[in-house]
Specification:
heterodimer; A: mainly alpha; B: alpha/beta; Rossmann fold; Coagulation Factor XIII, Chain A, domain 1; six-stranded mixed β-sheet; 8 helices; 33% strand
Chain lengths: 262, 417
C-alpha cells in the first residue's frame, strides 16, 4: 500500500507538477526567434527527410499510406517519447539545487517534461490532421482512440524517464547512455519501416517493445482503411502497466536518499 | 499551556563519507556486487554522524534559535524536519503546515520574469494559486520591484532577486517556518526588513526554527535557543544564557592561545593562512588585559605559500553575546597592501583609545583578495579582555550589556539648586 500513499501524495502536490511543467513549457522557447514553431518544425522536417531517404531512395513499403503521413504519424509519438525521456532522465541532476533546498514529491521533476511535451504533441497533431485533409484521408471513429494512445505514450515516457532520472543520480553513466539507447530504440521501433516487414521470427520480440503497439496504432487511426492491431496494442498496455508499477516501486525507494547523493 | 508542534526524539543522521565521488560509477557498483558474491565485502565505508540522539520539543508560537559552529548539524536538523532528507534513526513529529526557507528564492529561474517566478517559487514552497493571486500585489510592493515585475530576473540586481525571494517567503501561510541563514545575506536595508518581519512572526503565533550564525539576531528575536555541537545538543534555554555558554567555549578553549595554525574550522583557499595573533601595547609589548580607552595593537602573523597580490586584511570584534562591535579592513581604511609573501610575515593594526566597555571580546579574522577571493577566514579565533578599570569614570554600576564607554562632560547650570 506504500505505492498508493505515494500516488496520493503526488496528487496532493499536483500544483507543483503543473507549475514545473508550465516552467518547462515557458523555458523551452525563450529567447528563440521561431518560438513554438519549433514544435512543428522538428517532426515536420524529420518527416521530409525520412520521406526522401526511406521513401523515395530506399522505397520502404507502406501499405498504400502516403509517405508523409506514414512517417509523420509515427514521428510525432516518437519525438514526444525521445524528447521526454532525454529531458526527464536528466531532470533530477539538473535540478539538484532544488532537491536539496525544499521538499516536494521528487517525481514532479521527471514527470513535468512529459506533461509539458503534450502541448507540443497537440500542436503537432493539428498538422497531422491538416495533412490528412490534404491527402483526402477522411477521419474515422478510430480517432477517438487518440487520447488513450496519448495517455499510454505519456505513461510509458514517464516510467522510463523516472527510472533513468533516479539511476542518473547514483550513476552518471546514464547521461552518456541515454542518447545512445534512444538511437537504438528508434531503429528497434517500426518508425522508418512498417510492422509487417519484420520477419515472423522477430515479430514477437518487436511486440515486447511497448512503443511498437503505440506507433503502429497512431498510424492505423490516421488512415481509413487500416485495421488496428489490437493484440499488439494489448501487449503494449500490459507492459506499460508493469513498467508503471516497477517505476513507482523503484522511484519511491530511490527518492529516500536522493538529496544526500545528488 | 502551549502544545508542542514539533517533537523530536533520539534523532540521528549518518552520512556516508565519500559517497559523492565513491560508488557513483556503475563500474564500482558492479565490483561491489561481485565482491559481496565472493564473500568479501568492499572496503568498509566510513560514516560521519551529523546528528546524534537529538531530542527536544518546540511549543506552538515559539521562535527557536539554533546555534553552533559550522558542521555542528544545524542544517541537517532543518533538512530532516522539512523532509528533504531522512533521519537514520529516531522520530520526528511535526503538526501543521511546514515551509522551509533554506535559501532565498527557492526555485527561481533566471529566464523567467518576476511575476512568473513568484508563482513558481510560491507554489514550490507550498502556496496555492489562489493565495498567490491574492498576495501578488503585496509581494511585489514588499520587494519593491513594481517596475520590473515583467522583466526576466536575469536582468535584476542580486539585491532585487534577494528581496523578491524573501518577499515570497514572508507571505507563506505555513504554521511552522524553518529558516536557515536567509537573513545573513543582502544589503543592510534588506536585512533590517527581514529581521523586522521575523520579529512580527512572534506576534502572529507562528512557530519558527531559525538557524543562524548571527547571534545578535538570535538573541533579539528568539524566545529560546538550542546549541548544537558535533551533532549533540549542548544546551537549550534562554537565548542569552545559551549564547553566552556557546561563546565561552571559544574563550575557554582559546584563552591564552594565540597560535592559529592548528585551528581546523576555517574557510578559504589556504594560499595564505593566519599563523598567530598577538595583542600588544603601542610600544609593542605583549598584553592580554587592557583598560577601556587604552591603546591596543593587534598583530596578525601569517604564512603565505605563494606571493599574493593586493591582499585585504580584515578583523571583526564581537561581544561575548556575539554582537558585532566593529569591522576593520585594510581596504575600507583606504590602505592598499601591494603584495605579501611568500613566507612568514605580519601586519599590525593600531586601535588607539579602544573605548570598549569592560568585558570579554572575540576576534574573527579574514584575509581576502579583490573579487570575492577568500584566502583564509577564521571565526572567533581569539579573545581579549577589557579590564573594569575604566578610564571614563569610576565605573560604578555600569550596566553589564553596554558595549562602549564614551568620554563625557556634564555641564551643570549655575542656577541649579
Amino acid at each position: 500500500m506504500k505505492g498508493w500513499a505515494w500516488v496520493r501524495e503526488g496528487w496532493a502536490y499536483r500544483n507543483v507538477y503543473y507549475l514545473l511543467a508550465w516552467r518547462d513549457t515557458k523555458l523551452r522557447y525563450k529567447q528563440t526567434i521561431l518560438g513554438a514553431m519549433w514544435a512543428i518544425l522538428q517532426p515536420f522536417l524529420t518527416m521530409v527527410l525520412f520521406t526522401v531517404v526511406f521513401g523515395r531512395v530506399i522505397g520502404v513499403p507502406t501499405d498504400g499510406i502516403p509517405y508523409p503521413v506514414f512517417y509523420y504519424a509515427a514521428l510525432l509519438p516518437w519525438m514526444y517519447f525521445s524528447n521526454t525521456v532525454a529531458q526527464s532522465g536528466l531532470s533530477l541532476v539538473s535540478n539538484a539545487r532544488l532537491i536539496t533546498k525544499v521538499y516536494f514529491p521528487r517525481s514532479a521533476l521527471p514527470i513535468a517534461p512529459a506533461l509539458s511535451g503534450i502541448i507540443d504533441f497537440g500542436v503537432g497533431t493539428l498538422i497531422l490532421i491538416a495533412m490528412l485533409g490534404y491527402y483526402g484521408l477522411h477521419p474515422t471513429w478510430k480517432l477517438l482512440l487518440w487520447p488513450i494512445l496519448v495517455l499510454m505514450l505519456a505513461s510509458l515516457s514517464c516510467t522510463i524517464g523516472m527510472m533513468l532520472a533516479a539511476l542518473n543520480v547514483r550513476y552518471r553513466d546514464v547521461k552518456h547512455a541515454v542518447p545512445f539507447i534512444l538511437q537504438l530504440w528508434l531503429f528497434a521501433t517500426p518508425i522508418v519501416y512498417p510492422v509487417n516487414i519484420i520477419p515472423e521470427y522477430l515479430r514477437h520480440l518487436a511486440y515486447l517493445n511497448p512503443l511498437t503497439g503505440i506507433v503502429a496504432a497512431f498510424r492505423s487511426i490516421s488512415v481509413p482503411n487500416h485495421d488496428i492491431d489490437w493484440s499488439s496494442l494489448c501487449i503494449s498496455t500490459l507492459i506499460i502497466m508493469v513498467l508503471v508499477i516497477m517505476s513507482i516501486a523503484y522511484f519511491s525507494k530511490a527518492e529516500e536518499t536522493l538529496s544526500d547523493i545528488v | 499551556m502551549h502544545t508542542s508542534v514539533v517533537k523530536i526524539e533520539n534523532l540521528s543522521k549518518r552520512y556516508k563519507l565519500g559517497q559523492l565521488e565513491g560508488s557513483t560509477m556503475l563500474r564500482e557498483a558492479v565490483v561491489n556486487v561481485l565482491h559481496r558474491r565472493s564473500g568479501r565485502t568492499a572496503q568498509s565505508d566510513q560514516f560521519v554522524w551529523a546528528l546524534k540522539d537529538v531530542s527536544f520539543d518546540v511549543p506552538e508560537g515559539e521562535i527557536l534559535g539554533v546555534i553552533g559552529r559550522n558542521g555542528s548539524g544545524k542544517s541537517t536538523l532543518l533538512k530532516i524536519l522539512s523532509k528533504i532528507t531522512r533521519a537514520t534513526s529516531g522520530v520526528t513529529q511535526v503538526t501543521g503546515r511546514v515551509a522551509s526557507l533554506l535559501e532565498v528564492g527557492t526555485g527561481f529561474h533566471e529566464e523567467l520574469t518576476g511575476r512568473e517566478n513568484i508563482y513558481l517559487s510560491g507554489t514550490i514552497l507550498g502556496m496555492t494559486k489562489k493565495r498567490i493571486d491574492e498576495k501578488l500585489e503585496e509581494i511585489v510592493t514588499f520587494a519593491g520591484i513594481e517596475r520590473f515585475i515583467d522583466t526576466p530576473i536575469k536582468r535584476y540586481s542580486s539585491g532585487m532577486i534577494m528581496r523578491l525571494g524573501f518577499s515570497v517567503a514572508a507571505h507563506l501561510e505555513a504554521e511552522i517556518l524553518l529558516v536557515d541563514e536567509v537573513i545573513a545575506v543582502g544589503d543592510t536595508e534588506f536585512q533590517r526588513k527581514c529581521l523586522q518581519t521575523m520579529g512580527e512572526l512572534r506576534g502572529v503565533g507562528r512557530t519558527v526554527l531559525f538557524v543562524s550564525h548571527n547571534l545578535a539576531a538570535v538573541e533579539n528575536l528568539c524566545t529560546r535557543a538550542i546549541w548544537l555541537d558535533d551533532g549533540l545538543v549542548c544546551g537549550v534555554g534562554r537565548p542569552k544564557e545559551i549564547i553566552q555558554k556557546y561563546m565561552n567555549t571559544f574563550g575557554d578553549a582559546r584563552a591564552g592561545e594565540l597560535a592559529l595554525d592548528h585551528i581546523l574550522s576555517r574557510r578559504g583557499s589556504g594560499e595564505v593562512r593566519f599563523s598567530r595573533i598577538e595583542f600588544l601595547t603601542m610600544d609593542r609589548r605583549r598584553t592580554r588585559v587592557i583598560a577601556s580607552g587604552d591603546d591596543l595593537v593587534i598583530q596578525l602573523q601569517y604564512n603565505a605559500k605563494s606571493r599574493i597580490e593586493k591582499p585585504v586584511f580584515g578583523l571583526e570584534i564581537y561581544t561575548n553575546l556575539g554582537t558585532l562591535v566593529t569591522q576593520i579592513h585594510t581596504y575600507n581604511s583606504g590602505v592598499d597592501v601591494p603584495s605579501i609573501g611568500p613566507g612568514n610575515g605580519y601586519i599590525d593594526v593600531e586601535l588607539p583609545n579602544l573605548n570598549l566597555a569592560p568585558g570579554r571580546y572575540h576576534v574573527s579574522l579574514s584575509l581576502t583578495g579583490l573579487g570575492y577571493v577568500f584566502y583564509d577566514v577564521v571565526d572567533h579565533c581569539a579573545i581579549f579582555d577589557i579590564d573594569a578599570s575604566c578610564r571614563y569614570g569610576l565605573n560604578r554600576a555600569l550596566k553589564r550589556d553596554a558595549i562602549m564607554c564614551v568620554s563625557s562632560n556634564w555641564i551643570i547650570p549655575n542656577d541649579t539648586v
